[in-house]
Amino acid sequence: MPTFDHIIIGAGTAGSLLANRLSADRQCRVLLLEAGGHDDYHWIHIPVGYLHCIGNPRTDWLYRTEPEAGLNGRSLRYPRGKVLGGSSSINGMIYMRGQARDYEQWADLTGDDAWRWEHCLSAFKAHENHWRLDEGATEPPDAAFARAHGHGGEWRVEKQRLSWEILDAFAQAAVQAGIPATKDFNQGDNTGVGYFEVNQRKGLRWNTAKAFLRPTCFGRTNFEMWTGVHVQRLLLERQADGAMRCTGVEVRTPHGVETVHASGEVLLSAGSIGSVQVLQLSGIGDGARLHGLGVTPQHELPGVGQNLQDHLQIRSVYGVQGTRTLNTLSRSWWGKARIGLEYALRRSGPMSMAPSQLGAFARSDPDRAHANLEYHVQPLSLDAFGEPLHPFDAFTASVCNLNPSSRGEVHIRSPRIEDAPAIAPNYLSTEEDRRVAAQSLRLTRRIVGQSALAPFRPQEVKPGPGPDSDEDLARLAGDIGTTIFHPVGTCRMGTADDAGAVVDSRLRVRGIRGLRVVDASVMPTITSGNTNSPTLMLAERAAAWIRADAGAGTA
47 with 205: CB under 8 angstroms? Predict the structure, then answer.
């Protein structure tokens, strides 16, 4: 029964950074456990390869949601990364922090000023390596930008290596509709329209395995990593003073079941779905529910699996004329050859594309104090990721409610690790979310109706012209809405008197010593934008607290 100082469950976004930071102390033995495999599939690293990774059992856990009433009974594909780097190996590569107000809200909800924007900003900068701060950068930053960003860290942020006529026209139309142009979404207020910056290096995906595991951790003798292994349960012991402690994990490997102990902490970083599954299989959660499933309750925490939040994107499709989009450019052998040659020679062009290239943050109505909508605009269209592109030129303007009030849940179905959890996001279940969905579709139509797009004669394909009442538009949103892959909140942090909180403000599981959850599941509310980089920030902060506690002998 081997013993390590720290055991990290999950080699995804948070787990990769934790492994790097904790194993930097050569006296600290760190074990990293990953249920998936290595990130050696070539389509992981070619940016447009997300089309081949989502829905692929080699790289995706292939989860699905329960049928959703708010989506008119539809069930959605729910991608989660199944390789080193986790979802950073299959996601949209967009570098986005959210807004300052997100973290001010976290501080208020947890009663801990450590989560205020100024402190979170320092953690973002600690691992950032922004291209505009490179020596000899083509667009040197101003003083405000330099104060807000970091350089020399592991997390590379670069400018996209492409442009599209139709996206430039959409950006001009957004400005005409009252959304200001911006070159930086990441200084605390992301209102504006502009091209997203991406986590790439020279036209290749930059996932967290590249950034934090290889080569640094792989060269450390105090670091060990097991892949293709499943944590069946956490080991819990009642101590002499009556307190519960997590002492290790039971792991199913290709060679059988092994028990591994931690003298310090067990760190659960399996994500908003996986972390819930591990906790509940270990008897941590709603005792009555677990007992009914055949799991012996060990520790009552009814909030485990509750408070699921996600960004629902409403994907409007517009057919266009007089310009090329990826739909038709990639259909001919000559078009494909040009695309492949450009990428081979320059690492640019459509094969370097993130799933969304142009972004915009706007208000669903003028009375809102902050942007509450995010657009992901693409020079392509398809029925769903993994489906063929449409045979006509088109662009997609996806818009999501950044701060949904709907709350869902995640729960195991059985005591078997092989059985995928039930995922019920509960999209569009509140009147406010349905109203914002209707407003967002109206704003999309207003942007597309501006003169900048008129030369391309855009025609609405989805959801299609029709009635304009809030009720009708909310129903149409339910027909075309889909996840943008941002599940958070299922092990949320909170104050000591918050019965639904799973962890405290330092991410320690309530009532269990030696156990923390460090991933997007601890977010009490979803951030106003893409969630990958905020998860890294969480892990950066947690690593500092773990090291401090270990040094003080309180782990």
Answer: yes
Domain 1-117+208-309+406-425+487-555 has CATH 3.20.20.100: no
This model's pTM is above 0.70 = yes
170 contacts 316 by C-beta, under 8 angstroms: no
| Percent composition of the chain: helix, strand, coil (DSSP 3-state, to 5) | 30, 25, 45
pLDDT tens, residue by residue, 256-284:
999 999 999 999 999 999 999 999 999 99
Would the pLDDT of 552 be above 70?
no
427-475 tens-digit pLDDT: 999 999 999 999 999 999 999 999 999 999 999 999 998 878 999 999 9
Task: Tell me how crowded residue 101 is: count the other CB atoms within 10 A of its CB.
Answer: 17
As given in the structure block, the two tokens for residue 335 are 């078009």
- C-alpha to C-alpha distance for 508 and 451, rounded to whole angstroms: 54
* 140 C-beta neighbours (distance < 10 Å), count: 11
The burial of 216, by beta-carbon neighbours within 10 Å (0-12 exposed, 13-18 middle, 19 or more buried), is given as middle
83 assigned binding-site residue: yes
161-195+312-401+435-486 has which fold? Cholesterol Oxidase; domain 2 (3.30.410)
CA 419, CA 384: separation in Å to the nearest integer? 25
486 labelled catalytic: yes
Q: Residue 502, annotated ligand binder?
A: no
